[in-house]
Structures are given as C-alpha cells and as structure tokens.
Design a protein that fits this description.
Blueprint (H helix, E strand, L loop, with lengths): L8 H13 L1 H12 L8 E6 L4 E6 L2 E2 L1 H5 L4 H4 L3 E6 L8 E4 H17 L7 E5 L4 H13 L2 E4 L6 H11 L3 E5 L2 E3 L2 E3 L1 H8 L8 E5 L13 E3 L16 E2 L3 E7 L7 E6 H15 L7 E4 L6 H13 L3 E5 L10 H9 L3 E4 L1 H8 L4 H4 L8 E5 L5 H11 L6 E4 L33 E4 L5 E2 L4 E7 L9 E2 L3 H9 L6 E9 L5 E6 L3 E4 L2 E4 H9 L4 E11 L3 E10 L1 H4 L3 H15 L8 E5 L12 H9 L16 H7 L4
Helix pairs in contact: 1-2, 5-6, 7-8, 9-10, 12-14
Bound molecules: adenosine-5'-monophosphate-propyl ester.
C-alpha cells in the first residue's frame, strides 16, 4: 500500500491541500496504487450536483471481494481475517483465516447461485453477528448480487417494508439469535415479515440456536442442506465501477426509510483509504469495531475497510454487559485488541459502572480508540480517555453518515491533536462548508451553521433505491450545488469542527437514527389516538430519548392511561422495533400549530427538556393557549 499513509500534521495539511486542489489526481493515485482492478477507469469523477448524479472511476472493472480476499491469499492466506467472539464467553472463539474466509465465501456464492440468485438480484440479510453474516455479504458481492442487511433488532413489519422496497428475491436469516441472556426467535419474525413480501422466493436459514422453527415447503431451506456439498470454486463476477454493491436503509425525517445505494469502486477506495488512516492501521494489528454489521459502521469498518487492508477484524456477537459489565474489556484483553471503535452510548453506560470493571483488565494492547454515531459529550470523552485509553491512546471522534459511506471528519491518530467533543478536521478530499438559513456560506472561524460538503468524494451514496427524486430533494436542494448533511456544526478558532446535532426531524437515540414521522405514523395506528408528535430530550445514557405528545380520540379519554402508554409502546415496537419506544408519553388536548397547520416542534422540544424560559416567537400560533396546558402536564 503506497501513498496511503499520512505521517504527521504538516503531511496532513500537504495532502489535504493536494486533495482539494486536484481531487482527480489525488484519488486516481490512491485507487491505482492500492487496489486491484480488471480494467482501469477512463474518468476519475464525473458529477452534476444539481441533478445529484455522481460517478467515480467510470469504466473500471473490478470486484470488491478480489480486494478483500483473493489478493491477500498469496501473502496472508494463513493470517486471521476474522476473529469471532461468541455471546457466550465459554464458547470458543473462531479464528478464520483469509484462506478459509475465501473458501467459505466461494461456497456460499455457489449455494446462493444454486438457489436462483443472480447478478443484480437483491438479497436481504437478517442475521445475528455470526460469521455467516460476513460470509453472505461477501458472497453477494462476489457474485454481483446486491445485499441489503437489515439490523436484526427490527420488527417484522420494518423488515417487510424494506424487503418490499428493494424487491428482494431472497432473505437470509437464522433460527434464532443470542443477545446477552436472551434468545430471540429471528425465524419467527421473518415468517411474519414474508407473509406480505411477494418478491421473496427463498428464505435461507442458518443454524445458530438450534431452536425448532417452522420451515415452509418450497420456500424455506436450511443452509446446512446445501453448504457442505457446495463447490469451493467460484468464478468472481466482473463488476462495473458503478454497479450497486449494497442498499442500506436509514431513517428519514419523513415517510418510509431511505434505501441508500452504495456502488462498488468509490465505496471500496474510500473505506479502504479512511480505515488505514483513521485507525492508524498496521499489519499485525487486531482491530475491533463493536457496531452491528446491520449499520453502516459495520459495513464499512468491520467488513470492507479492514478486509481491503488485509486486517484482522473482530466480530462480536454479544452485548457489553453480558455476562458482566466488563465484557468489552475482557475481549480487548483476550484478543489483544489494538484499535477499539465504539459508540458514545456504550461508553456512557459502561462509565456508570464501577471503574474496577475496567481496571481489572490489561488494556495495554490498545493504541487507538474511536467513537461514532452521535456527539460524544465531554464527560464521556474524558472517561474514555482516562480509563480505557489510559491517556495514551488518541480518541478518534469520527463524524460520518450512512450516506457518506465512510468517515468524513476525524482526528488522525498521532497526527491531529485531539480536542474533547470535536471531530476536528476533514479527511483529505472532504470539503466541509457551513451555510446559514439564507443559503450563504459562513466563512471564517468561531461560527456555526448547517453542515454541507462542497465536492463529491468516492464513498458518497449514489441514490435512494427506486427514488432518485427523493435523494436529490433530501440532500441537494436545500443548499444548491452542495451535499446537505442534515447536521449542524460549529467551527472553532483553529478550524476544528464540532457536530452539534441534527437540524431536521431525525433524532439519534443510543446512536440509532430515528425519524419522527414513522414513529408518529405508528402511534396514530392506535384506535384511541387522534394525533401525535414526537420530540427528543437529553438523556444521560442514550444521548437523546423520545417524548411523545398524544391527542386521544373521545373513545380514548376514559381509558386507563398507563395501559394506553403500554399499548402505544407495544405498537411502536411491533411496527418499527424496540429501539423506537418512547420514554415519556403525555396526553394532551391539542398541539401547538401554526396557521398553516405545522406543529411547532421547537416549543414541544423545550417543554420536553423542561426549559420554559423562552419559547421564542409564538405569535404565528393558531392556539397559543395550548402551550400552558402542555407545560403544566409535563412528565418529569
Ligand atoms: O448526526 C450525525 C450523527 O449520526 C448521523 C448519521 O447517522 P447514521 O447514518 O446512522 O450513521 C451513523 C454512523 C456513521 C449524523 O448525521 N453522528 C455520527 N457520527 C457522529 C455524529 N454526531 C456527532 N459526532 C459524531 N462523531
């Protein structure tokens, strides 16, 4: 790997300048010198920000799995690619070498082919964090099928809507999953989900919990009936640079989830490049990202980024608190992890436990520790720095999104001086700009505004599956000519960025993006509910929690309120998943609305936070008297 590594701060500034002055030359060299291609591109980048049409490395032919697997076989065939750590600490870890992973992926690709999957078909994967999750994703990539991993905490109806949106031909699931001391009936959830998914021809079932499941004749098949006889030879499909690699759903502030489409070449180059630099990756490192592969963090930084670099990546099936609250620290010690990448929510919840849980483990193998998914508050940053990093491991506070494919703003370890709560500086190739409400660029330092990106980078999602218009409207119209992130940010006196949070109706709860509209839609399904509005409020562990204001129909007025609250949360759990449940539900007789009928969420947010000091301009409210009623009934 050449021309890949940033050595020190002057080198960062030099590379950054180069990347902005001549992005084509910059990415051309990185792509050329660090990846294997069947055929070179004839154009590095072509884009039209008005139409939201972006292409990288057009004309190139490649397969990402050649880069993740095949090319490592000669030099690193026996090196461990994946360390799999079970939910149960007494179950033996698996060490899967590059050679074995390659073989498993080829066999799996043959199984999928035998079951009718072809290049371009969509395959939904609903699996726990077991090796087959990585193997099936890579098998799809190898054969040119488009994977769409659905986080295995989503409910049946959330699965149905995603499967239908991408018209998946197959779903891959398991009999069950383990999470701490719970066993979850994944196959049962899929059985319910596929009742309404006409595109699904086959459900492929992996054995994990050995629980009894129903198998529908002609549709459901066990992996064990195919895999042992499958050939280990598979002819890799040659893909175009812009062929779809995967679809990953993320919440929008309105309507149904957005299927973000990532394509092959740009995503590979960007995740490979950022992995190497942001984690200061070196050949014998043991890298561990605790995210679920069902989120973008897992796609980019458990699987693709590490594997294109020939790294050893840990896949952990369990939860941080099982069997005890030191599981993360025990795993770091056991596998001598060098890079550890997790979310502020996990840090906050573990910081609540006695620090003796951390101190009793030898964490001296750690070199770099990272954070992702939501702003990390000062207290959590310092706890992480003091107790986990022992003040010697730089914290990389990495800001990015499902849509960006890879890390965008982050310190580089041993290069960028860190500053608590700041994601610091943009990576080479990334041009952040702050914009005001009037669509003017805010220049200078010590300013804040809407965070946009000026120029495309290779990892950017290319569209929303089946709805390019929505892609264009969501990301490219608010600030014409720029990609709008939906986040607010401030830039300090030295040019460091700090992400201040969402500026739209997406709320990040425990690091999960939740749109208010889908939650409101699901509450409104309750027969006793007339209308609802959701806002976020600060929460010690989760970052934000959800507060619901609910107007009941007359029929609901006489019902037991606690019972109704339970029913509403059950409904949310069934339609979206338990992660979207409300912490507080207040029944109200009306919602503050403007004359045009828009709910003034700003006021609800303030009430939920318990801040009654200044509601701002309420003169446009149709029903100002409602504010006092809601304030008085606030739930503490
Ligand atoms: O608001 C930002 C927040 O998470 C959002 C993206 O969520 P998602 O697409 O689920 O991807 C999460 C993992 C990349 C962003 O718009 N976010 C992510 N990282 C940070 C962050 N907020 C502050 N600091 C971060 N480091």
């Amino acid at each position: 790997m050449k021309n890949y590594v940033i050595h020190d701060l002057p080198d960062y500034f030099k590379q950054y300048k180069k990347s902005i002055k001549n992005p084509k030359k910059f990415w051309d060299k990185i792509a050329d010198e660090n990846f294997v291609w069947y055929q070179r591109w004839n154009k590095v980048v072509k884009f039209d920000m008005e139409e939201a049409k972006i292409e990288w490395f057009k004309g190139a032919k490649l397969n990402i799995t050649k880069n993740c697997l095949d090319r490592h076989l000669a030099e690193r065939g026996d090196k461990t690619a994946i360390i799999w750590e079970s939910n149960d600490p007494n179950e033996e870890a698996q060490y899967i070498s590059y050679r074995e992973l390659h073989e498993r992926v080829c066999k799996m690709a043959n199984v999928l082919t035998e079951l009718g999957v072809k290049k371009g078909d969509r395959v939904c994967i609903y699996l726990p964090m077991i090796p087959e999750l990585a193997v099936t994703m890579l098998a799809c990539a190898k054969m040119g099928a488009v994977h769409s991993v659905i986080f295995a905490g989503f409910s049946a109806s959330a699965v149905t809507s995603r499967v239908n949106d991408c018209e998946a031909k197959m779903i891959i699931t398991s009999d069950g999953s383990y999470r701490g001391n719970k066993a979850i009936d994944l196959k049962g959830i899929i059985d319910e989900a596929v009742e309404k998914t006409p595109s699904v021809e086959k459900v492929l079932v992996v054995k994990r919990t050995n629980t009894e499941v129903k198998m529908k004749e002609g549709r459901d098949v066990w992996l064990d009936d195919y895999y042992p006889k499958a050939s280990a030879d598979f002819v890799t499909k040659i893909m175009d640079a812009e062929d779809p690699l995967f679809i990953l759903y993320t919440s929008g502030s309105t309507g149904k989830p957005k299927g973000m489409l990532h394509t092959t070449a740009g995503y590979m180059v960007y995740t490979g490049y950022t992995f190497k630099n942001v984690f200061n990756y070196k050949e014998n490192d043991i890298y561990w990202c605790t995210a679920d592969i069902g989120w973008i963090t897992g796609h980019s930084y458990i699987l693709y980024g590490p594997l294109t670099n020939g790294a050893t990546t840990v896949i952990f099936e369990g939860v941080p608190t099982y069997p005890e609250p030191d599981r993360f620290w025990a795993v770091i010690e056991k596998h001598k992890v060098t890079q550890f990448y997790t979310a502020p929510t996990a840090i906050r919840s573990l910081a609540k436990e006695s620090s003796s849980w951390v101190e009793k483990h030898d964490l001296s193998s750690l070199r770099v520790i990272g954070s992702v998914g939501e702003p990390i508050n000062d207290e959590a940053w310092h706890w992480y720095n003091d107790h986990v990093g022992k003040k010697k491991c730089p914290i990389v506070d990495t800001w990015w999104q499902t849509e960006t494919g890879g890390i965008m703003i982050s310190p580089l370890p041993f290069v960028t001086p860190t500053k608590p709560t700041y994601a610091t500086l943009p990576l080479p190739g990334i041009q952040p700009v702050l914009m005001d409400e009037k669509r003017n660029e805010i220049t200078g330092n010590q300013v804040d505004g809407n965070l946009c990106i000026r120029f495309p980078w290779p990892g950017i999602a290319r569209t929303i599956w089946g709805d390019h218009q929505r892609y264009k409207e969501t990301y490219f119209t608010a600030f014409p000519g720029k990609y709008f992130t939906g986040d607010g940010a401030l830039r300090d006196e030295t040019g460091y960025y700090r992400i201040t949070g969402r500026v739209d109706d997406v709320i990040i709860v425990s690091g999960h993006n939740l749109g208010t509209a889908p939650i409101e839609d699901s509450i409104n399904l309750h027969p006793a509910v007339a209308e609802s509005a959701i806002v976020g409020f600060p929460h010690d562990i989760k970052g934000n929690a959800l507060y619901g204001f609910v107007i009941l129909k007359e029929t609901g007025e006489s019902r037991d309120k606690d019972h109704l609250r339970k029913e509403i949360n059950m409904l949310i759990s069934d339609t979206i998943g338990p992660i979207a449940k409300l912490d507080k539900i207040q029944f109200v007789s009306g919602l503050p609305k403007t004359r045009s009928g828009k709910i003034m969420r700003r006021i609800l947010r303030k009430i939920a936070e318990g801040d009654f000091s200044n509601f701002g301009d309420t003169s446009t409210l149709l029903n100002p008297e409602i504010v006092d009623e809601i304030k008085d009934g606030r739930i503490n």
